[in-house]
Amino acid sequence: MNSITQTLQTNTIENLFFPSPTEEAPPLTTYYNPGFNIDFTERLLGKKNGNKVPRSTQTRLDTMQKRLTPLIHPRVSFGIYEISKIEKGIVSLAHHTIFHSHKMAYSLKGAKRAVIFIATIGRQIDAEINNLMRKGELANAYVADALGSGAVERLVEQFQKEVAAELFNEDQEVGLRFSPGYCDWPITEQTALFSLLDSKTAGVKLGKTCLMDPRKSVSAIFGIYDQGKMRVKHSKNPCMRCAKKDCIARRTAVAEEI
């Protein structure tokens, strides 16, 4: 049984995703088993156009995966919020939280609610990367850092897919994720996002520069839409309108399919 399903059975899907008109579901925290998005990790290590990484890098990846897996403790704190207004470059939530991003506003147009979350794999992997650096194992530290990013990427993908699966039977679907500091969303609005969630239970702190601790953490928002003839991840993908074709965060229809 997955974490979202367990959470929904405890809180009921009606209370969590379909609260009464006068209240919103409280933020919740769910836990996951560790794992890695290896394709994402390999792209961080320089893989391009479907090519394989060098054999030496593959060997190091295999070794470091086994070493790091016990150090990863994935968890997600999340909440579902009503969207009150979307206008040019502005997304307003029902209880007066406002985000500023033209690309996010374009993508969220048509969504009535949004899922906002903070995901992390914990601090132990940061400590291991620092330990490898101190010992002069720079190649291992480099691969470990990429694997940490791949682990948190797998976590947020798994979380979003499970939310999508729960909503599918209600004729609803989810859209693309947006994180503060990416595209045109100012990282300073991380503070407003954090104010909506239980970051303490998630184990994530926000620094003065709006960077997260642990480093291998992700905060984001994605919309909930009524199902239409065309998937919103395809029709509202701002990456398809962006000229930066070599962006490592570029999202294609295939990569974002659920």
Keywords:
258 residues, alpha+beta, NADH Oxidase, 10 helices, 9 strands, disordered C terminus
Descriptive report:
- By secondary structure, the protein is of the alpha+beta class.
- It has one domain: NADH Oxidase (3-Layer(aba) Sandwich).
- Helix content is 38%, strand content 19%.
- Strands 1, 2, 3, 4, 5, 6 and 9 form a 7-stranded antiparallel β-sheet that branches. A two-stranded antiparallel ribbon has the order 7-8.
- A hairpin with a 5-residue loop joins strand 7 and strand 8 (212-213).
- The chain is globular, with a radius of gyration of 19 Å.
Protein topology:
Layout: H1 3-11, H2 13-17, E1 28-31, H3 38-44, H4 55-68, E2 75-87, E3 90-93, E4 98-100, H5 102-108, E5 113-120, H6 124-134, H7 138-168, E6 172-174, H8 190-194, H9 199-202, E7 205-206, E8 212-213, E9 217-226, H10 232-235
Antiparallel strand pairs: 1-2, 2-3, 2-5, 3-4, 5-9, 6-9, 7-8
Helix pairs in contact: 3-7, 4-7, 6-7
